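Feature request, filed as a ticket because there's no other form

It would be nice if the structure record came with a short human-readable summary line next to the tokens. Right now we just get the raw output. Example of a typical job, pasted below so the devs can see what we mean:
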Amino acid sequence: MRERTRLLFGIVAACIYVLPMILLGEQAHVRIHDNLDSNIVWYKTLVDTNTLFTGLQMNVPDLVNGVVSRNAFVSSFTGIVWLYQWFSPYTAYVVSQLLTRIFAFLGMYLLLRDHGKAVIPHSYALWVAVLFSWTPFWPSGMLSTLGMPLLLWAYWNIWKGRRKKANILVLLLVPFYSSFVLGIVFFLATLAIYHVIKEIRGRHFHGRFWLAYCTQVILYLLIEYRLVYSMLWEDELTSRNDFETGTNGFWSSIRLFFKHLVLGHTHDRAVQSPIILLTVFVVGVIVFRKREEASKSIRSLIWFLLGLSLWYAFWFYDGWNPLKQQVSLMRTFNFSRFHFLQPMVWYALFFLMLDWLWTASKRKWVIGLLITQTIVLLIWNPEFVYRHHPSYEAFYATTQFDDIKRYIDQPTTDYQVASIGMHPAIAQYNGMRTVDGYVNFYPLSYKASFRKVISGELDESKQLKRYFDTWGNRVYLFSSELGKTYEFTKHHQVPIRHLSIDVSQLQQIGTTYVLSAVPIKNAKSIGLRHEKTFQERHSAWKIRLYRIDIPAKK
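Raw output as currently delivered:
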């Protein structure tokens, strides 16, 4: 197979994973957590409110009572938000998926082909690269995780003196479609440590490499100018200052280590279990026994993966707390996220183990492992994984919300809403202003004001109290009867018998209406008047519209 044909075949194979989203349109099922409930709405709101390029001192209206700084959201120069300017939200989402998976495939294939030092034919490197592109990455991460192989390929080309225009192009363009904080900073830190050690051992300075490295770091800082500004010059206390420093004891940390090693993290799943993990166990035992020079890379990557999971698990160890209390950056910045490197490392290790089996004349094993891992990843397709959750269309329920807005019959700028039993993002997506929401951070003063609304419910649930007080980025109308569940669809109705919220305080922070996905039995007694219940066949929800109606004091 010619190289161009091979690349074209791989690109098509990478795109096949997105095919259900293309064919089903908005009836497709996609991830809700940290996706439909947040990021997609953030991008849409930045576009709808014309705040994409607003000033450093400005807030974003419509979300969380308009108190959230524009700097809490994605940079104005990050490519994913441009897609939401050019296309409808769903189309932008699908295009982003396609772009990320195509460049994930290209990066991993080029890395394995040019730097893998393997005997196995290139077609198997292509297969592994396609599988890597199919991993269920966090959608808003863009190339933060899946673009690492492409960056590493370019950096190693420069290190080895291979002057290619593609190297410069990759290093200059990837920063515009990735997140410095959510992945890349940990990749660059690891890259620097590794190559400083190589410089010391080799006693040869690679000037071009370090020039490229420093240029890219500066480029990332320029792109993330809002983040830089907020870290260096904003002095307002935010919800991040309340973040929990860590409560895991030693044995809890050990359990977390094994859980992470086997299952990975929700934002960067490699789907290493069971196939890749079993392969590592079997091949690893052999290569550690023989300790051959040819298998040194396999041993090194295994140790590296173990180290990444250990670091992640013990970042939340309570033994760190005295130091974290002294250094605020250790509380407000999540240094555990070196785990974002794991998908790249898992599939690089998988390829090296397949190469080892190939040289050991276990070629049927190689094909069998690749076929089984292909099946595993197909099962992890979002259309299958989230089939029991609302589709994109059913989740956002635009037709139903059009009915609600017509009933209210006021400009959406004249009132604010709060939601119970459903994500506030749904109302936000439909152009309603909300006093609640899910954001990266917001003023600590507003957290205190909102806490007064839900303090009665927090007192009824230790889980919710800890969740809000030690994190709190979900500014939700919690109910102790519902718990940490926000998807009470029309087919899953759990009435709230006694809602203990301060409706007067809710009104004071600017709320006019409450949208509830479940009936509130004591609504009238706490000052909520039921206006109407809305249903629509394409919607996942049965929404009760309540108006705040507090009797005047005599």
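Something like this underneath would help us a lot:
The chain is about 55% helix and 5% strand.
Strands lie at 416-420, 433-434, 437-438, 474-475, 513-516, 528-534, 543-548.
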